[in-house]
Each structure stands twice: as C-alpha cells, then as structure tokens.
C-alpha cells in the first residue's frame, strides 16, 4: 500500500482496533465515521472521533478496503536468500504514527540467523526499539514482525526483543526516511 491523502470511510461492521499510542483494544461500531490517515504495510491508521487507532489489514473489509497483499515470496528459497527476504519483509512493517518503515526508521538493532536442528530451518533473532520508550504500540509492532517473518519459508522460529539500549534518536534514520519526513 502507498501513502495517500486522508480518506473518509464508514465502518461497515463492528471491528476491534488498537488505540495509538497506548495499544489498548477498543471496538469500532458499524456506522461510525473514520478517516484513513495512513495506509502502509499491512495495516491502516484511522482517526475516529479524535482518536488514532490501528486497524489490521485482515480487517480491511470493515472499512470497505481489500486486505493488503504480502510481498512476493519465491516458491523455492535457498538458505542464502532468507536474510534479504527477512529484511524486505521488515520493510513492510510500520509505526502506525510515522509513514516510514521500521528498517528506515532505524528501529532494527539486530537481525541474526541461527540454524535449527530441523534441516534447512533457521531461527531469526531480532532486536528492535521504539521511537519512544513509553510507546504502547511496541507489542503490536513486535507481533507484526513475528507474524510476517515466521510466515517466510525456512524460518522455523523467531524471537523479537524490544530493547531500549542504545536509545533511539533521529540519527538512526536512513536518508530515505529523513527525506520522507522532511527532516
């Protein structure tokens, strides 16, 4: 999905969302008005009655949209192809308040690969941070990373650690991220 101007939508069925930045679940009711503020990666950020919320892409039909398509994954993936595929996948994960993926934001501190006993399978260990230690969306972002990476071929296990050392700052952002945010 791409960045686009805000769009008004009507909630077509009751649906659970997460408030931003606390991450608390709430239910949107059929008939509520919302505005899409960000449609990137595999989720939607909505503004509903002055509150930002995150709607999972799997619930896109609740606002009259189609579920975002995952990245194209080749049928046969060699062990050497797993690392670039994981990084490409991580670039489909977004902080719901910032229109830049978590890789370009500099939120990924470590991405290691370890062989598992099951032949050809790997354990992926990722350390990620948040733009602010008190951000309630950390668990949601970590869960999205887990779900997406674990769905890749040859990935048998994943561990995602949310860390705060060193503290994140703007210097960790890629040039692309700085340009996208006008910094």
Distance between the termini: 23 Å
- Under the CATH scheme, the architecture of the largest domain is 2-Layer Sandwich
Largest sheet: 6 strands, antiparallel
How many domains comprise the coordinates? 2
Structure summary, number of beta strands? 9
What does the overall shape look like?
Answer: globular
Domain MIP18 family-like: 86-160
Pfam families: FeS_assembly_P
Protein name: Fe-S cluster assembly protein SufT
In short:
This is Fe-S cluster assembly protein SufT. The protein is of the alpha+beta class and 183 residues long.
Describe the protein's architecture and organization:
The protein has 183 residues and is of the alpha+beta class. It has two domains: 7-63, SH3 type barrels; 79-180, GMP Synthetase, Chain A, domain 3 (2-Layer Sandwich). It contains three helices and nine strands. It has helices at 79-90, 138-150, 175-180; strands at residues 7-10, 15-19, 25-28, 33-40, 43-48, 51-56, 108-115, 122-128, 155-162. The strands form two sheets. The protein has a six-stranded antiparallel β-sheet with strand order 1-4-5-6-2-3, with no helix packed on it. Strands 7-8-9 form a three-stranded mixed β-sheet, with helices on one face. The two termini are 23 Å apart. The model has no long low-confidence stretch (mean pLDDT 90).
